[in-house]
Structure formats: structure tokens, C-alpha cells
Amino acid sequence: MKGLEVMTLKKIGKELEQHIMTGISYMIPIVIAGAVLMAISRVGASFYGISDIWESKWADSANLIIRFLNTDDGWGGMALDLMFPIISAYISYSISDKGGIAPGIIGGMLVANMNAGFLGALASGLIAGYTVKLLTDNIRLPQAAKSVLPVFIVPVVGTFITLFLIQYVIGVPFASINTGLAAWLKGLTGTNKVLLAAIVGGMVGFDLGGPVNKAAVTTAMALLTSGVYDPNTAAQVAIIIPPLGLGLATIINKRKFNHDLQEAGNASLVMGLIGVSEGAIPFAVESPLKVIPANVIGSAIGSALAVGLGAVNHAPISGFYGWLAVEKWWFYLIGVAVGTLIVTALTLLLRKEQPMEDKAIEEESDEGDYFTEDEWES
């Protein structure tokens, strides 16, 4: 009986994880689009000596380019404001198909208005999704009235129940948790702040786009809406360290990698520069016990160093195109460089050179493709 209960709980947990990861996967492109727009405006504004291009005073500037940069930053902010509605909508969609989108997105907007944070958005999506599923599974209408269910009853009743529960049950507690967490994180100084950065960095470097990575990155991005920037700074530094470190290792000592990983190393460098941690996955798959510890250590140290030195990344963007928009970007790049070199050094230290037999076999197979002189003459 206990075994059955454990299996049931595991199944429920797996389903919840799947629904939440679906919501996150739909949210990330929205966040990236908004972040890149903001990075463009802030890097552009820096050439004019402007560090607060988002302020409304620049909308009336006599300079056309500055006015456009202010508008562009507003576009980016508008996209980022969709973070909670989108994640809520697509968690709900994952549970109850397209009927859950309307209650989910409206519930996510209420969560954002109440400042209930990332946890509130997750709860909103789950409430909307399971409410709609309950309605569609249990309401039976005559054939002539069936079309009323998806276009009227489900969106109206689903939205009302979702909003009611958020407003009067979960909204205030989650808003209190979010406010308290933000105040606590803002109050961290010295060793505590560096330790938090190391933990976030280590989580991001652990599974390269997997559940642990996404949990850390998404939470860090969500905290931006509360004006908490250190977790995001740590996360964005850590995203690019593993692919850069492993790619650099393949350049420094090719003999420690087979042909496929040498090719993967070139792609990993490019993906690291544009802020995609998944470039390091082929290395982690090939040798997880060597690669994962190196990634975690390098990411943790690089993130802690960048945050400890005072770098602040206000946008959820890790690629090279956003580096100059980072406050104290030189310290940010020092953290990236140190973390990258640690991953490279540990990788080369832990790996052995590839056996020469592989190379000999490759050369032998290459030679087999050519005819001998006698064969040509015959």
C-alpha cells in the first residue's frame, strides 16, 4: 500500500514538473526578446553617457536617436512584463489544453498586479489549468449546446474561479513571501551575498538547461521584477561559463578530445558567446563525472567573483551583446574569464589523451578510399 502511495506521489510530482517546465519554456523566448531590446537601448545610450535611458525625461529629448532608445527600452520592459502572464498561461495550457490559456493569462496578470511573484505565477497556472480540466471533464451539455462550453462557460467560469482564489486566498500570502524574500536578498552583504551568487552559479552550471538550471535562472529573472539583481547577475555569468570553458579546452589540447567533441567545441564557443549553456551538453553526456563538477565549480566561482566585485546585470541576458549594458561590466567579464579558465583547467586536468589507435584507424580508413598505382593502371 505504501509503495502504491509513493508511486502515485512520484507520478503527481512528475506531472507537476512537466507542466511547470512547459510554462517556463514558453516564457523564456519572451524574456530573451525583451532583454535583447533593453540591451540594445542601454548599450546605445551608454555612447551618449546616459545610464538611465528608461526614465521618461529622455522621451522628450531633442536627439531623435535618444528618443528612439528610450522607446526601445520601453518595448523591452513591455515584453518582460509578460513574464508572469505567459508562464501562468502555458502551465494552464499544459494541464488543460487551449481552454486553459485565457484563465491562465488573466490570472498571471493579477499575480503581477498583486506583486505575488514567481511562486504566485506558478500557483495561478496550476489553479487555472486544473479548474478548466475539472470543468471540461464534468460538464455535460446537449449536442446543440456543446459549442457554448469552450467559448463561454470554460473561459468565464475558469477565469472567475482563478481570479477569486488568487485575490482572496493565495495572492496576499504569496505577495508577502515575495516582498520578504526581496527585502532579505537586498539586505545581503559581503560573504552572504557572495555565497548566494556561488549557489546560484553552481545550480546554473549543474545540468545545462535542465530542471535545476531552469529553476535557478527563472527564479533569478523573476526577482528582477522586485528590484533584486544579484541572483540574475550570478545566473547570467554562469550560463556562459561551461560552454566557453569546454570550447576553450578543445582548442588548447585537441588530443584530449575525439573528433566529434573537437567539432562540438567550436560550436560550444559560439553558443557560449550568445548565451546558450546547452552548447556544453555533448561534453557532459560523454563524460558526466568529469564535466559536471568542473562546470559547477567554475560557474560558482565565476558568479561569486562577479557579484562580489560589484557587477550588476539589470537584464536577463548573458550573451556578449549585453555585456556593455552591465553596471561595472569589467568586473562582470573578470568573473566570466576566471570561471571559464577554471572549467578549462579542470577539464584538461581530469581528461586523458585520446588513444592513438583511434587516429590510426581513421587514417587507415582514409587510405582505403584511394586506389593503388597498379589498380589505376589496370
TrEMBL record:
Keywords of this entry: Cell membrane, Membrane, Phosphotransferase system, Sugar transport, Transmembrane, Transmembrane helix, Transport
Presence of the UniProt keyword Membrane in the record: yes
Lipid bilayer topology: Multi-pass membrane protein
Statement: the UniProt record of this protein carries the keyword Transmembrane: yes
Chief place of localization: membrane
GO molecular function, one term: carbohydrate:proton symporter activity
Composition bias type Acidic residues, residue spans: 360-378
One BP annotation, GO: phosphoenolpyruvate-dependent sugar phosphotransferase system
GO cellular component: plasma membrane
Transmembrane parts of this sequence: 20-40, 74-93, 105-132, 152-174, 194-213, 233-252, 329-350
Cited PANTHER family: FRUCTOSE-LIKE PERMEASE, FRUCTOSE-LIKE PTS SYSTEM EIIBC COMPONENT-RELATED
NCBIfam families: PTS_IIC_fructo
The protein's name: PTS system, fructose-specific IIC component
Organism from which the protein derives: Liquorilactobacillus satsumensis DSM 16230 = JCM 12392
